Structure formats: C-alpha cells, structure tokens
Amino acid sequence: MTEPLDQERTTDQLETIGRALDSGMFIHVRRMLQQMRPGDVAWLLESSPAPSRKVLWQLVDPDDYGEILEELSEEVRDGIIRLMDPEKLANALEDMESDDLAYVLRDLPERLYRQVLTQMDEQDRLRAEQALSYPEDTAGSIMNTEFITLRADVTIDVVLRYLRLRNELPEGTDTLYVVDKDNRLLGDMSLASLVVQAPATTVAEAMDTQVEAIPLTMSDVEAANLFERHDWLSAPVVDENGILLGRITIDDVVDIIREEGEHSMMGMAKMDVDEDTFAPVLPSAKRRTIWLTVNLCTALIAASVSNMFEATLSQLATLAILMTIVPSMGGIAGNQTLALMIRGMAVGHISDSNARWLLTKEALVGLINGLIWALAIAVVVSIWKDSIAIGLVIAAAMFINLAVAGLAGALIPLVMRRFNIDPALAGSMALTTITDTVGLLSFLGLATLLLLN
Amino acid sequence: MTEPLDQERTTDQLETIGRALDSGMFIHVRRMLQQMRPGDVAWLLESSPAPSRKVLWQLVDPDDYGEILEELSEEVRDGIIRLMDPEKLANALEDMESDDLAYVLRDLPERLYRQVLTQMDEQDRLRAEQALSYPEDTAGSIMNTEFITLRADVTIDVVLRYLRLRNELPEGTDTLYVVDKDNRLLGDMSLASLVVQAPATTVAEAMDTQVEAIPLTMSDVEAANLFERHDWLSAPVVDENGILLGRITIDDVVDIIREEGEHSMMGMAKMDVDEDTFAPVLPSAKRRTIWLTVNLCTALIAASVSNMFEATLSQLATLAILMTIVPSMGGIAGNQTLALMIRGMAVGHISDSNARWLLTKEALVGLINGLIWALAIAVVVSIWKDSIAIGLVIAAAMFINLAVAGLAGALIPLVMRRFNIDPALAGSMALTTITDTVGLLSFLGLATLLLLN
Fold first, then answer.
1. Is some CB atom of chain B closer than 8 A to the CB atom of A42?
2. Which of A61, A392, B246, B301 has the CB geometry, 3.0–4.6 Å to B143, for a possible disulfide?
3. Are strands B214-215 and B185-190 parallel, antiparallel or unpaired?
C-alpha cells in the first residue's frame, strides 16, 4: 500500500544522513542512499557542503551514476565528474537520453571528453556527436531522439500489438508521432487518445493533424514559453522540411523555466547564476569579484560627481548628509521599472508594437512618483533642517531623478535587448549609475546655484 | 500536414492584431482571435495595453471565455472579469477543472462571487465550494478532482474497454489510479505502462505500488519541488488516511515555478509580483508606493547616521565625497549572499543541518572580499586624494562593512524564515539598512577618531 509523503521526510532525511556522515557510519549511509531515488540523491548532493559530496559520491551505487548526473546542476555535476575516471563516466552516460548526454558532455574538459568518447560504444558515440551538433540554448539542444513513430495506414489494434512487443516506451512518452516514409511529421496521437479509440480505427482517422511542431533552431526559452502557454507535456521538433528529428519533454522545460527565474533574480543581485550554494570559500569569493569590481567603478563615478562640488560641500555640510537620499530613491524606483520590463521580456510580452506604450506609461509613473516624493521629501527636510530653501532644492532634485529613473528603467532593457545584452545582468548596474549621477548632479548642482552666493 | 511553428509568428501576430485594432478592423480581429488557441489569446491579452484589452475581450468567442480565463494571470483576469456579467461568468466557469475554478472564484469580490454561485448548476456549485475549502498555497488548492480510478482485480482488456466507453479522458491524464472500495490509493498505472501490458494481465499485477502521494496539506511550492526533482507529470493527492482526493498536474506546477522565480526577482527589486505590465498609470504608481516609502525611511536612517558626523563633514569635505563608496560595496556584497540564500531556500536546499556551514562560508567570503576591496580602495583613494591616512580609514571601513555584509546576507534570510517573513521581499531592504548604517558609521566614525584632532 502507498503511504502519503511525510511533509518533513525529505528535510529529516538530510539531517539524518548529515549526522550519520559526521559520525562515520558509512555503511548505514550507503544503505540509505540505495533506497533513495536518483532525483533525491541529486538533491542531497546539491544540499551538502562541498567536502561531504566527495564522501557521499563514493557511497552511491555506480548503477545510479547516470540518472543522478543528469539531475545535478552544472556546477555540482562538474565537481563530481572530476572525481570519476573516464571509463566509469562513459558507462554512466550510456543509458542517458540524448539531450541529457549532450548536456553532460558539453561541459567536459577537452581531454576528458575525448577519453570518455573513446570509451563509449559506436552507437552511443554517434548519438552523442549528433546531439552535440545542435547549438546550445536551441530547441535542438534540449530535444531527445528517443520517441515512437507510427504509419498513418495501420489500425489502433496493430499499434497496441506493436507497443506490447516493445514492452516499454521511452521515458516521458505521452504522445506517438505519425510520419510518412520520409519521416515527415503528419500528425500525432496522445496515449490518452490512443486508449479510447476503437481497435479497428486507423491511425489516419484518429490522429491529430493540427500539431504545432517546434523548429530545430527556435531558442529553448521561446520553446519553454510555448509549453507554458499551451500546457504541453511534450512537443515534436522538426527541421525546415518538416522532418521529425526529436521531441522536447516537459521535464527539460521545467528546468529552463526554473533557470530563467534564478537567472533574473541572481542577475538583479549581481550574482553568477551558476554559483553553487555550497561551494568552497575561495571559488565563491572569486566568482563575486567581477560585479564588485564593476560596482567599485560605478561608486567611484558617483564619488567623482560629488567631487565636482567639493567647494559647495565644504560650505554646507548639511548637503553631504542629505545627498544620498535622492540617488537612493531613484535607484529603487528605476529598478522597479527595470524588473517589470525584464519579467515582461522573459515571458515574451514585450514587442515593438507595445514598447512605446509601455515606455510612455513608465515615464508617466516616474513623473507621478516624482511629484509625490518631491512633496514628501520637501516637507521632511524643511522641518528636519529648518530650511525651506534646502527642502525645495531636494524636492526639485527628487522630481528630476524619479522622472529620469522611470524613463531609464524602461529604456535601458529595450536598448540592451536590441544590442543582445542581457538586461537581467547588466541592466541594474547601468541604471544605478544613471540614477546616482543624475541624483547627485541635480541635488548638488541646484544647491550650488540656488543656496550659495 | 503539419507546419513547423514560425519562430516569429507569435510576435508578428501581436503586431498584426495591434495594427488591425488601431485601424478599427474589428471583424478581421475577431476572425484572427477565433483561429487562435485559448493560451495564445490569453497571452495576447496580457501583452496588450489595458485600454485594448476591453476591445479584444468583446471580440473573443464566448465559448472560449473559460479556457482563456484560466490561463490569465491574476491581475489581468480580475480586470477582465469586471467587464463580464455574472451569468456569462458562471457559464464560462462551468467547464473548468476544479482547481482552476477555485483559482478564479477565490479572488472575486464577495458580491459577484455570490451572484456567480447562484447562476451555477447544483453540481458545479458543490464542486466549487469543495475546491474553495482547501487553504490557498496548499496541495489541495492546486489539485483537480477529475481523474480515473481502477479496481485492482480487473484485467487490462477490461480497462481498455472501459476507457473506450468513456471516449475521452480528463485533460492532462497520464496516469490511472488504483483504489480499493474505500477509495484508498493502492497504486497507479501510467498510460505508457497500460499500452504495453498484455490484455489478460490484471491491474494488480501491472500497477506500480511504489507511488509517492502528496498529502493534502503540503505547501504547493514543496509539491512543485518534488515534481521537479522526480520529473513527474502528475501526482495523486491523498488525505491522512491515504484516501485519494485529487491529482496535481504538471501545468499547475509550471505556473508555480514560474511564479516563484518572478516573486524572488521582483521582490529583490522591491516590486509587487502581481503588478500587471500593461496596467494603467495611476494603479501602477500606487502599487509602487509602499516600497518607496520604506526606502525613504531607510534613506533617512542613513542620513541621520551621517548627521551625527556633521562637524566632521564640515571640516573635511573629502569625506562627504567618499562616504557613499563603502555603503555601496557593502550593499552589493550583502545582496549577493542574500540572493544565494533565497535561491537555496526556494529549492529546499537549506536546512538546519547545513545552515551553520553556509553561514561560516559566507562570513569567510565576506572577510576575504573585505581584504581584497580594502586593499583596492586604499590604493585608489590614497592616490586620488593624495592622503594615505584617508586611504587607510576607508580601507578599514570597507573591511568592516564587507565582513558584516557577508554575515548579515546569510543571517537575515535564516532569521526571517524562522519568523515566517519572506526574505525575497523584506530581506534586501533590511540588509541595505544594515550595510548603509555600518558603512557610514565605520567610515565617518574612524575618520572622526583618526583624522581630526
């Protein structure tokens, strides 16, 4: 009988295995690992500090290597592969679906890659080379070539007898494809439709001819958006002549959607999306250097803006105290717009036809925000610093900066996309540089013009 | 014959419909809408500026209302529902799966909700009330109750004949469930397994008894993580006695994973995840007020920290110019750690057993970052400002702030989780307040102690 999953079970498992490892109860851990599914073992490895992973991997059943490897994230997998000899690795890869095989092989160091390939049998090698020939991030790179095709003129009864002879369907099969003798896709038939058909019906009568096939060269993200929009479980992939080459299954789409979300979130925080949560200290520190360097540069740009107003600042220290407020508000307001744009682009909502409407809207939101917050800061500062003049100066600067922030937040991602730059990564840094500069320039500039004489 | 999807087709469609709408060719638009699938119409509505949506909805075929509504995002759907009268809405809801029905009904204003419910027939009303009885964000709220159950003692042949009599399976069916007379889940059989079984085999022989059933009260996010980890297409939902109540299908899981990603990304940018990209100006501006208010408070806290050093700043204007650098670097470094933690928590990688390891690691990364950037800023500032003393002061402040940033970035989300606060929303604001305060305090404090006398 089946048992409902205990909600706390998986977390408990993590605790138990962690404790057993710490106290050296390796045989106990090995037994626990054998009872876990490959997906759970992959999750356990990803949740373990780097040093424990090595020990855990040695306790894993080698028969499960392949299935676990294909579930691991890139960084963690690369670390584990470095622990394996080429022969064992080649064995582990043999049962993989072609897209997962390419996914693992693509990142191997050149030398290891060649060693693994020579260890494989002829058929697997060809399959691997074929899968690797499709460019990364295209539909081709995430499709697998294990699927079942039917001819249109046979009956359902024949199809069922054929399937019974096969005894097992390729993993994730929900649909059978109908092709002509040149392998051109004519239609498809879901298993859900197959099982309700009368045995004497022909495939031609029962099949669905309104199949939307994914072209080989479509981007994987766009393909994932189509899956999401149409609630597909799988979709056929065809070349420009309509020849069926493979199929994409929902499990790979789920990975892409998960990655897209993490990429945007980590990008906004200036973090490498590939960084392994439990990586050792030094590689972690190294990975974060790039964006900290970029940020130091933008911080120095901001400092050199205020440097132009050194005379003003030395006359009126109050300005120094207040000068961080306007850039801070501009940064937040601009990033709000930026996030909205990045999300809209990720799901394919933003095109040339609606971009201008959106730009106008966000510019207007910026103007309204500008009015609201100019008023608010004028009141706060006039009272706090007992100076209506300073209150008015900071209000004017706030209005300018928030109006600019709205416009820049909408414009930057549109411009970046045109030049094929990823706004999730570079957008917020460019934006902050603008809002910092405009914020400081307008506040200190207006103060110099109006308050000093 | 099937045609490969034109990669540009959907975007072109958007342009074409946009242009046709603008030039008032409503009959043309209506015809185009009729040829589109519900998912595409939903996507078109979401990609259209708020004013166009109203026109588009009037051109949609009322028979498609239900299917389109269930594909729409919350915000857009609420806007459209306000355009419909209760009777039409009740009709549209009738064919929906129970989870989608609850999803739509849950957000209706009380009065409209009652009106719609009285328009429904008895059976649909019961179904809706049942679905609404499960708390939001639990497995119960995303399960649907349309599924097929089998008895263990019948043969595959009988099962096939039964399915043929039914003529159609519930949407998204990939697995049939085997239950006893009390509806207790005994096992399951995928369609892929059903079609390869010999007709004389009994369900008991062919079924998989190692089914992992989702408990009714599990959180929807946790259930989604399980789907992802195990590459499930659907999973049964049971109560505490193992009674089968419904099933969760992958399409809802995909929506949850997409939402989770958007929630983290938008949260990092202080943006309401529900904000509709093409909402009108005023509601958009209003939605952004909360976080801008919070940010104004934190900016004022930072200003009041530097206010404590007014005397120092008026003596040495250079400090005012440099004082934004250390908080800026602390904010970025801290947010990097925060993003890593938020991602790790979202996929369930972080538990009590590895939290301490992670905290130590991030604190060490903070120390190493502190050393690197203290050195870098010391060199830059010593040369720029021609003062080794100021260079040393800013270096010391940088080291302190980056060390604190690493620790705070790891600690804040752990503490927030304990108190059930969502770190994706509140985390970065809390963090920035800390890094701003510590950065200004340490830089201006050390400068006051060491540079003035």
1. yes
2. B246
3. unpaired
Same fold: B9-133 with B288-450: no
DSSP string for A149-170: EE-TTSBHHHHHHHHHHH-SPP
- Is B344's Cβ below 8 Å from some Cβ in A? yes
Question: A-contacting residues of B 204-233, CB under 8 Å?
Answer: 209-215, 217-218, 222, 226-231, 233
- pLDDT value for A112: 84
Nearest C-alpha neighbor of B218 from the set B273, B142, B131: B142
Torsion of CA B177, B183, B186, B189, to 10 degrees: -10
What is the CATH topology of the domain spanning A288-451?
Tetracycline Repressor; domain 2 (1.10.357)
Interface contact B200, partner A, CB < 8 A: no
Facing A380 at nearest CB: one of B213, B300, B311? B300
Q: Decide if the complex's ipTM is over 0.95.
A: no
CATH code for the part of the protein at A11-135: 1.25.60.10
CA triple B291-B295-B301, angle to 5 deg? 150
How far apart are alpha carbons B345 and B352 in whole angstroms? 11
Return the SS3 of B214.
Answer: strand
Contact A384, B303 (CB under 8 A): no
| Chain B contact present for A387, CB below 8 A | no
Give A116 to chain B, closest Cα distance, Å: 27
Domain B9-133 homologous superfamily, CATH: MgtE N-terminal domain-like (1.25.60.10)
> What is the pLDDT at residue B326?
97
**Is the CB of residue B325 less than 8 Å from the CB of residue B402?**
no
Q: Judge: A336–B270 Cβ closer than 8 Å, yes or no.
A: yes
Which tens digit of pLDDT belongs to each residue from A334-361?
A: 999 999 999 999 888 998 888 999 999 9
Indicate the pLDDT class of residue B5, thresholds 50, 70 and 90: low
| Interface mutation vs chain A, best among B183, B265, B345, B361, most A CBs within 10 Å | B265
The per-residue pLDDT for range B208-267, each reduced to its tens digit, is: 998 989 999 999 999 999 999 999 999 999 999 999 999 999 999 999 999 999 999 999
> For chain A, what is the radius of gyration of the CA atoms?
29
The beta-carbon neighbor of B258 closest among A6, A257, A311 is A257
For testing contact with chain A, the best of B1, B5, B394 (most A CBs within 10 A): B5
In this structure, which topology does domain B149-256 adopt according to CATH?
Answer: CBS-domain (3.10.580)
Choose the CATH number for A149-248 among 3.10.580.10, 3.40.50.2000, 3.40.1190.20, 3.30.360.10: 3.10.580.10
pLDDT digits (tens, 9 = 90+) for A398-410: 999 999 999 999 9
Which pLDDT does position B3 carry in this prediction?
53
Measure the CA–CA gap between B269 and A265, rounded to whole angstroms.
9
Which residues in chain A touch residue B212, judged by CB atoms under 8 angstroms apart? 2, 5
The CATH class for the domain spanning B288-450 reads mainly alpha
